[in-house]
Design brief:
mainly beta; four-stranded antiparallel sheet; 2 helices; globular
């Protein structure tokens, strides 16, 4: 049961007009260009507004008084995020293959991102963890905030080729870059990603098997700022390494209403990390939410080899 211990929960409403317009031009029988522009809107999530606060007990050096301070906090004063989106693309369509590539630019106002703020920088504090004790001026709190204007740009490409009557080969690639108005990189941008998949269908299209090979690039160190622990001490951030995983799954349409699905995911039991999952984890030996040691970061890894079997019934 959620308890509003901070007294910050209140009625909120977010509204803004959004629209989208597009045009395409077939300059050759199998080729076309397209343009899309639109205005976007994202209200802050409940978690960003009201997620429970994580706290720590630290000591004021001058007085010896122990105080409880927030290390991770939500922000009930967030404004909605607004964006202007522009995308330009090219398509080619053949008899047995198709290909498309697009470039986009999204301009954000009141962009919502995770920030670390130093609190009470004129007060000295002491704290002890598994690795010993430390002293510093002020302490840090990680929260979400409207960081102002931001720009995200990228390119996406995808294609598919039909190999005979039963086989289909697919491939896709995406690359994104983003920065705030002052040129600071947006740490929330995920590394490049590519997927290659091969599908087979038979038994009058009732049986389908697919294998997907996914590769993600490593997070670039230059796109991530030096992290700080609760006392503002600089710590090297955790970065996601490149990884490659293979998934194998399929389905069988037993009847018009009944379908069986099964899959083996991360078939080769690769240990890997998603940047979106570890970007807010700080390296440190504090027994606090949001901190992990080099040995403890493993609990944030993605699942190893796992299996899934489902049955779908349409009524």
């Amino acid at each position: 049961t959620f308890e509003d211990e901070t007294g910050t929960v209140r009625d909120l409403s977010f509204a803004a007009p959004s629209w989208q317009a597009g045009a395409s031009w077939s300059f050759l029988p199998r080729q076309s260009l397209w343009l899309q522009v639109g205005r976007g809107f994202r209200a802050p999530t409940t978690g960003e507004l009201y997620a429970p606060t994580s706290t720590a007990i630290i000591t004021e050096t001058a007085t010896g008084a122990e105080i409880e301070v927030p290390t991770i906090a939500a922000n009930p004063d967030l404004d909605a995020e607004r964006s202007l989106n522009l995308e330009l693309g090219y398509r080619w369509q053949g008899e047995r293959a198709r290909f498309g590539v697009s470039v986009f630019r999204d301009r954000y106002d009141d962009f919502i991102d995770t920030v670390t703020e130093i609190q009470n920088p004129d007060v000295q504090y002491d704290s002890c963890g598994f690795g010993g004790c430390s002293t510093s001026w002020g302490y840090t709190t990680t929260t979400t905030a409207n960081v102002g204007e931001a720009t995200v740009e990228g390119v996406e490409a995808e294609g598919q080729w039909r190999l005979g009557s039963a086989w289909l080969l697919r491939a896709a690639y995406s690359h994104n870059e983003g920065e705030q108005e002052d040129g600071t990189p947006l740490e929330s941008i995920n590394p490049d990603r590519a997927v290659v998949g091969l599908s087979w269908q038979g038994l009058d299209d009732r049986l389908r098997l697919t294998g997907n090979l996914t590769h993600a690039w490593a997070k670039d160190r230059d796109d991530v700022e030096i992290g700080t622990d609760i006392f503002g001490q600089e710590v090297e951030p955790f970065l996601s390494d490149s990884y490659t995983v293979f998934d194998l799954f399929g389905s069988y349409q037993a009847s018009e209403r009944l379908r069986f699905n099964a899959g083996v995911y991360n078939l080769f039991d690769e240990e890997y990390y998603q940047w979106a999952r570890i970007r807010n984890i700080t390296r440190g030996d504090f027994y606090l939410y949001g901190y992990a040691t080099d040995d403890g970061i493993g609990r944030f890894s993605e699942p190893g080899r796992n299996y899934r079997v489902t049955v779908s019934v349409d009524f």
